[in-house]
Structure formats: structure tokens, C-alpha cells
Amino acid sequence: MFQKKSDTDFYGLLQEAAENTLVAANLFREAMSGAKPPVTYIDQLKDLEHKGDNITHMIYRGLNKVFITPLDREDIMDLANRMDDVIDYIEETSARFDYLIIEKSDDYMLKFAEVIVGACEHILDAFKLLAKKKYNQISEHTVIINSYENEGDRLLREGIRKIFTSPTDPYSDFKIKELYERLEKATDACEGVANILDSIILRYA
Predict the structure, then answer these.
(1) What is the CATH number of domain 10-204?
(2) pLDDT tens digits, one per residue of 150-163
């Protein structure tokens, strides 16, 4: 039976945040697949982003209650904030399909979505290991998350290069470039989670 997590169950809440973000990443990938118009998914992604905010608030509330935490207080806060950044960038990209009036995705957006899903899968695996204090195994996942961020950088470069080498309507090109840059920030945020995990490994392993 499902039980609501305590706001001092920091490992559980971080894992819940990672699970929620992975759900959002998978939904965003579906939105980028072209099966339905991307705007179809905006409300669902907004709901998931709100859930992520609530989890972050629970973590902060819990930190205000206790003096002794399983990790440094700053590490818990940073992990929560970076996870919040990931889902924020996913949701913000989705919203831009509406107010920038972009009717369809493209191959680069789908590839970005696949990169974000992969990184989020490894973040969740790393958080599960963190709760078990299996610090040395976490680094296997942070290395892969970093490689996904590198792939995000490559996609951004290639996508922008294509915009300038095969320009269409300048206004439309500007909007697409905006989406690419927002998606690359999501991969940066995933790397931010990995960097915090690496610093935890150095201190606790």
C-alpha cells in the first residue's frame, strides 16, 4: 500500500523527484515523436513540474526540521535544486511550443529528448545507490550522465549549424534555436546532478 513519504525521508524524496522527472522526460520524448502535436502534452508536463516543485518544498521543509541529515545539508539542497532544474527545462520547452506557436518537433528535438531520458534513467539509478550508500557504484552512472551532456552539446552545435547553413524563415529559425538551447540546458542540469554526486563520492566513499 502506498504511504506518503515523510518530509525528512531525504533519500526517498530525492528518488521520488528522480522518478517524477523520468516520467516527464519520457512524456516529453513521446511529445517529440510526432505521434500527436507537441502542445497536446503541455498540461501533463505542467502537472509533473508542479509535483516536482512540491517534492522540492518537502525536502526544504524537512531540512528545517532536523539537525542531523544523512548527507551534508547543502548536498541535499543542491541535488533537489538541480533535479528541479531538469524538470523545469523540460516543462519550459514544452510550453514554448504553445506561446511561440511551433506546430511540430524535428529530429534534433527528438534526439535531445532521448538524451534527456537516458540521463534521467541514470540519475534515478544513482539515487537508488546513494540511499544504499554504494558510493563507488554511483560513479559508473555519473560518467554516463556526463557523456549524455556531451551529446547534448553536440546536438546543439549541429542543430544551430543546420539552421544557419539551411535557413528558412528567420523568425521560425529563431524559435527553433530557442528550443534547442533550452533542451541543452536540460542536459546541463543533468550533468549538474552528476557533479554533485561525484563530490559526494569523494567525501563519503
Answers:
(1) 1.20.58.220
(2) 999 999 999 999 99
